[in-house]
Amino acid sequence: QVQLVESGGGLVQAGGSLRLSCLASGSINSINAMGWYRQAPGKQREFIAQITGGITIRYADSVKGRFTISRDNAKNTVYLQMNSLKPEDTAVYYCNVITVGPPVYMYWGQGTQVTVSS
Fold first, then answer.
1. Which of 1, 49, 74, 75 is deepest in the core (most CB within 10 A)?
2. DSSP string, 38-107
3. 53 pLDDT above the threshold of 90
4. Nearest in space to 22 (alpha carbons), one of 118, 94, 74
């Protein structure tokens, strides 16, 4: 089992920046990929960014060039640096990990609210 705790959300004006953190604990040696998703009111949860093995990184088109994902293995933490924030970035942001398999497991954090005012 892997436990995830996000932090760093808050209220920011459009054009501002926030950095989210996600601390992993438990069976951390089983973690393969770490990433971020978000869910806005009335919408489905959507993929934002993922880092796999500390090397392979991918982003959703909507955040490319504005968001940066990074991972500190020594601290068991994944970060999401969010710059040039827009009101449409307002959502609950969730940390996600995928374990090495088989079997492959997926775990979620409790979420952190990000609100961008116009």
1. 49
2. EE-TTS--EEEEEEETTTEEEE-TTTTTTEEEEEEGGGTEEEEEE-S--GGG-EEEEEEEEE-SSSP-EE
3. no
4. 94
